Amino acid sequence: MHLVISSAAPSGPQCQAALERLKLPYLQSLLRKLAPGGALLGQESDLSPLHERVLSNNAYADGLIPWAALRACALPGFEANAAYGLVIPCHLTVHADHIAMQDPATLDLKQAESQELMQAMQPYFLEDGLTLHWLENGTWLVQGEALRALPTASLERVRGQPVDRWMPRQDAAKLVRRLQNEMQMLLYTHPLNDVRVARGAPMVNSFWLSGTGDLPSHPAPMLKATVLDALTAPALLDDASAWTRAWQALDAGPLAEMVTVLKNSLPPEAAPIALTLCSSNRAQTWRQQPRKLWGRLSAVFDAARPATILKTL
Predict the structure, then answer these.
(1) Are the C-beta atoms of 102 and 93 separated by less than 8 Å?
(2) Which CATH number fits domain 67-214: 3.90.1340, 1.10.287, 3.30.70, 3.10.590?
(3) Per-residue pLDDT band at 299 (split at 50, 70, 90)
(4) Distance of CA 202 to CAs 109, 187, 199, 266, Å?
(5) Rounded-to-integer distance, Cα 205 and Cα 207, Å
(6) In the predicted model, is pLDDT for residue 305 greater than 80?
(7) Every domain of the chain and the residues it spans
(8) Geometric angle at alpha carbon 201, from 198 and 202, rounded to 5°
(9) Cα within 13 Å of Cα(205), Cβ side
C-alpha cells in the first residue's frame, strides 16, 4: 500500500499560514511509525509535477513522461514504436494580461458531444500528421511523430490557472500552437457549442496537450501507488479553509485506513507500506521498516508535529 499526496504543503501564503493550525492525528501516527526514506527535488517551473515524477520513478525527462503511450499500450491496435499525447478539450478565457483555463472537470462534456467535437477536429490534426483516438469524454489520444520529443506541461499545471507560461514555445511545438488557434476559430462557431451555451454549460473552445512521448523498448516500471489529489484544487487557489478541510478528510479517511492496515500488516518485507507527501519543490517518502532498524531513530520523530514536517517539504 503506497499513498502519494499532492499539494501537501503548497507555497501560497494562506495555506502556509494554515499549516500551524492543522490537526492531523492519523498523519502524525504514520510519521511516527514509518521511517523517512528517499526525497525527490523539483521546481515550481517543472513541466511535470513531483507526484507524476514519483509515479514514474523519475525515469523520464521533464515534460516527457509518456502517460499517453502508457494508456495507448492497453488498447487494441497499439503501435509499440509510435509517439502519443493526451488531448484534453477545454475552455480558455482571454483576460487583459493572461489566458486562463477553466478546470476541464467542470465542462460536463457528454459522450456524444465529445465524439462529435473530436470528429470535427480530426481533419485539422490529420493535416499535420496527427491522428485523434477517442478515450473518454474529457480525454482523447493523439498519435504522431511530432510528439516523440515534444515536452509538454501536465494538465495539473494549468487546470483552473493561467496557461501562458506553460504554452510550449519550442520550434517543434509550432504545429500545436497553430492547431490551438485553428480550433478556437472552428469551435467558436460550432453548433454544438450553441447547444451547450443554451443549457448553461461552458463552450469548448480549445484543447490542452500533455503526456507526450513514446515508450522505450524497456520502459521503467511505474510505481504502484494511489495518488490523492483532493488538496490540489484549493491549493491552486490558496484557499486555506478548503485546503484544511480537504486535509482533514484525507486524514480521517485514507490515512486512518493506512494506520489500521499498518497495525495489522505483515512484516514490511512481505507487504511494504509507504506514504509520499509532495509539495512543489520536494517529495518525501516514508516507508515501513523492520522494527529494530527504525526503533533507534523513532524517538527523534515522535515529538514532531505534522506541521513541522510539512514545512520541510
Answers:
(1) yes
(2) 3.30.70
(3) very low
(4) 9, 12, 9, 50
(5) 7
(6) no
(7) 2-59+221-310, 67-214
(8) 110
(9) 17
